[in-house]
Amino acid sequence: MSAFEDAVIQRIKQLEREVERLQRWEQPVENWQSYTVSWTASTTNPAIGNGTLNGKYVQIGKIVTCNILMVPGSNTTFGSGNWSFSLPKTVASNAFLTGNWVVVDASPLKFYVGILRAYGSESKITQFIRDAGLYWLADITPHTWADGDSLRISFTYEVA
User: Fold this and answer.
1) Angle at CA 42, nearest 5°, toward 36 and 43?
2) Rounded distance, CA 117 to CA 52, Å?
3) Cα(36)–Cα(22) distance, rounded to whole angstroms?
4) Nearest partner of 64 among 105, 38, 36, 99, judged by Cα
5) Residue 56 to residue 87: CA distance in whole angstroms
6) DSSP 104-153
7) How far apart are CA 90 and CA 94, in angstroms?
8) Which residues are CB-contacts of 82 (< 8 A; sequence separation ≥ 6)?
9) pLDDT tens profile 137-149
10) pLDDT tens digit sequence for 25-60
11) Could you tell me which of 82, 41, 68 has the C-alpha nearest to residue 150?
12) How many whole angstroms separate alpha carbon 141 and alpha carbon 82?
């Protein structure tokens, strides 16, 4: 075997080892997964009834990106007190969850937007921020909720 052939074989073996290393440590992008969102309130829990409450997420390595959609129906009850929404995976200790939210009041058409946050010690989203201040979503906040309105939440965080 020539020195050139030997060098090529060594290089191929090196590349094979590198591919094996990457396959062990790199996690492939997975498909979006659905999850059951728990929608609760600080006093009386709401109930989605014939409305829609969907959660989906994708995990890439230790990072989760999640979307929640809530569209009340004609028999949705909104509970009382400040709302919270469950997460699909446990937040890493001392991690900081960030994202955004959009509320659409269908009648009259009006939009409310803000950011959200949660810390690693929390297992749900509770802190909604609007107009540079802490804010809570509730049965009458940011408006009186009704059939056809919607809430969209999108966020990213590190998992435990």
Assistant:
1) 115
2) 23
3) 33
4) 99
5) 10
6) EEETTEEEEEEEEEEETT-SEE-EEEETTEEE--BTTBSS---TT-EEEE
7) 12
8) 41, 42, 126, 136, 137, 138
9) 888 889 899 999 9
10) 555 556 899 999 999 999 999 999 999 999 999 998
11) 68
12) 9
Specify the pTM.
0.79
Q: Which two tokens stand for residue 142?
A: 């940011």
CA distance 3 to 5: 6
Q: How far is it, in rounded angstroms, from Cα 127 to Cα 142?
A: 14
Q: Which one-letter amino acid corresponds to residue 14?
A: Q
Output the six-digit token pair for 149: 């309105």
Tell which residue, 145, 56, 69, has the closest CA to residue 105. Answer: 145
* Tokens at 35, concatenated: 């999850």
